[in-house]
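Good day; I would like, with your permission, to put a structural problem before you. The record follows directly beneath this note:
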Amino acid sequence: MDDAAYRPGTWTPQGEEAGKPTEDALIAACSNVYDPEIPVNIYELGLIYAIDINDDNTVKVEMTLTAPGCPSAQELPDQVRDSILAVPGVAGCDVEVVWDPPWDPSRMTEDARLALNMF
């Protein structure tokens, strides 16, 4: 057991409290980013394909856009990076826009489909 995390009679959970960002915190950060043309956050839209937390607390995000000609193509990755960097414990963030597999509406959560009347 890690002595820094254990004190007799107490338990300190691992994760943000121990200085390492959690996947839930990173998902919440991505959920604060909205495509300006769609009133649903990009996580619920299914635009975030992967979130990897490295041993050095840097984060790599793979995301896509709804279409290659998306007018927000420049700003959305920057907004994701800024949101991730605001999470306690994150040492750096790299956001990569990928096109394979292509995005389609089946990647949206049920809540997103309901919000957009796409059910």
Summary: Helices lie at 23-30, 42-45, 75-85, 110-115. Residues 75-85 form the longest helix (11 residues). Residues 1-17 have pLDDT under 50 and may be disordered.
